[in-house]
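Researcher: Let's continue the batch. This sequence belongs to Helix-turn-helix domain-containing protein, and it's 76 residues. Same format as the previous ones, please.
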Amino acid sequence: MYLTIKETAEYLSLPETYIREMIAHKRIRAVFDGDQYLINREQFKNHFDHVELAKKLFEEWRNEPIPEDPDVKDED
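Model: Same format as before. Here are the structure tokens for Helix-turn-helix domain-containing protein:
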């Protein structure tokens, strides 16, 4: 499904000017049909999947207990 710049900005919760800049710098793939840019929404699915995976891995890392240091000696 193709989105316009305005629809893409709403979909990603970003300003339209930022989307235009990303297209100009070729960070977002878009097709110009002679009147407007059309952006395939599927290119963002992979990004959102990676963001969710990163959040999950960070939570697992954050909840991992700190291991005891084997070099610490009780000298009392």
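Researcher: Any comment?
Model: The radius of gyration is 22 Å.
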